[in-house]
Amino acid sequence: MTDGSFLVHHFLSFYLRAGCKVCFVALLQSFSHYNIVAQKLGVSLTAAKERGQLIFLEGLKSCLDLLFGEKEQSGQPSPLQFLSEGASDLKALFDFVRMSLTPAGSDSWKGPVLLVDDLSVLLSLGAAPVAVLDFIHYCRVVVCSQLKGNIVVLVHSNEDSEDEENELVVNSLCHHSDLILWVEGLATGFCKDVHGQIKIIRRVSLELTAEKDLVQVYQYKIQDKNVTFFARGLSAAVL
Amino acid sequence: MSEICCFKGHDLKFYWTINWVVILLGIFLLALTLLLFIFPKNKENQRCVVKIQVGDLSNKKEKIPTVLVFTEEDKYGLYSNLLFKYFLAEGVVCGHELFVASAKEHPDNILKELPAPLLDDTYRNELGEEATAVKSEDFQDSMKIAWRYQNLPKMEASPTSTKFGHYYDVSKTMPPELFQSINWHSFYLPEELSLQPKMKTCNMNSAYTRLLQSIQRIIYQEGFDGSDPQKKQKNILRIGIQSLGSMLWGDDICSSDTPEDIHSLTKFLYVLRALLRKSLSACIITVPAHLIQNKAIMERVTNLSDMVVGLESFIGSERETNPLYKDYHGLVHVHQIPRLNSLICDVSDTKDLAFRLKRKLFTIERLHLPPDLSDTVSRTSKQDLAESAKLLSSGCGAMAIGKKHLDF
What we know:
The structure holds two protein chains of two kinds.
Chain A: H1 5-17, E1 20-26, H2 31-40, H3 45-50, E2 54-58, H4 59-68, H5 81-85, H6 91-101, E3 110-117, H7 120-124, H8 129-146, E4 150-154, H9 164-176, E5 179-184, E6 196-202, E7 214-222, E8 227-230
Parallel strand pairs in A: 1-2, 1-3, 3-4
Antiparallel strand pairs in A: 5-6, 6-7, 7-8
Chain B: H1 9-38, E1 68-72, H2 78-94, E2 97-102, H3 107-112, E3 115-117, H4 120-137, E4 168-173, H5 177-180, E5 184-188, H6 189-192, H7 206-221, E6 237-241, H8 264-278, E7 281-287, H9 295-304, E8 307-313, E9 330-336, E10 353-357, E11 362-366, H10 382-394
Parallel strand pairs in B: 1-7, 1-8, 2-5, 2-6, 6-7
Antiparallel strand pairs in B: 3-4, 8-9, 9-10, 10-11
Helix pairs in contact in B: 7-8, 8-9
């Protein structure tokens, strides 16, 4: 039951406050959910959208427009085009991301950021794992290499998962990532005061300097407007 | 406990008698401490009766969270059907609109079998009797050994003070006059097969497509999505879908290891989620999860739902006769709780829940094990007995006691 979604809220408000242009592909929850939480964290998503800093793709709403919409959307195909026609690639989604983050002339934002919540949903909607990985690859080329930005992706995974497609995507993402934040429940079971454990893995090994990855482990407790992190075993309830 | 003492003959006998008394007393005190440690004097019989209630309409500013409750059916579908009917009955009593979909049973019949609501007085009386019965057994001695527990708050025998939801009597059906005031819609698959779906199919099973279309039509026509600003009073739509994913819905995930289309169910759930988020509605779905061979589908379905509850009934399993579970009819597994509009979720104290169906009430309680009054230090469960039987037969005399028994 441990969920890394608090990290998504954190990164969203973090990058918006830092003045970056953010393209948020929100597949699992509605806009109002993120807005309400972001307000608790001190950022207004509505205002960010209005000034063009945040491009928000609400997957749920797009899906309804696509399936129940009576007329064709003007010009651009829906980002979730792959749903309706059984098209096997996520090209439309990639085009959406590319167009959102390519800087327009008047933009003065710092580096672009692509935030995805959550990638495992694409598999549930019928996209093949290879298509999902291709999508991420294309995004990396554009966002990271060309536009010098960042990509933050949330995926779900289970230790004893039987979802092979999902595990394939997760493993591939882990191999290519510079930083992995691995959120899991406590090995000892449920605890009211410590909600889980986060492993921060800095992929130093990718830099080919013969160093091992740096791994740090902290435990955390989620509160209403904040998340507190502490070293293992040093929860406030215990001290 | 091994001392070498030198005593004269007659003193030895006396000494050993005293030793035995000391040892026995020690064991008795130990047992007492253990008992008190595990079961403090106040009976931990808190009944947390679970109510599924959708928010309060009076606060118009606050958006009502739309919860997709997903129940994994128990093997024979008895208890999950009961939960399903509870959800719908609560809707009737609160005056919400209902949408019932089923491929198995006609929704009219389902609605005829909803449990009757209990008027507050009768229920309180019943609970009150049980509460007094419990209290009379408590005695207010101050604790001598487990005195640390003295200051802990006593557990409430039953939550009579909370006014959240209603209680139902499962032995009676709801009187038809309660239905008069509410609107309800039904979707019975065999009757709907003749109509052509108008929405884009997106490669989904046609039964699911029809169901989605029907739900979308009701939401739009009745104005649950706020599309009709002139609608005077906002109401909530309670959707109940029975046995989704079963063969009756035309899906083969329950009958085959390698189903033809593993994405239909998850796509359906995604679109349903989208419809619920857009409107003032809540939905309960029961799924025969034990029949779905491909566990990946259940994992995906769990991710797509707000709340996932699994019911494991003891009927036909070895647990039915296990003395540990004699008070209960099954276990409740909560796989997911909604985390809507906030960073945290409402996490309860305990994750061990069990349910039981009494003559009139269906209750979900904290799993409470009876005191262990066996001779061995740890409880015997069937597994241990089986293991010790195996060891006995293999001839290892000394090891025949079983792994967990620590006898000195």
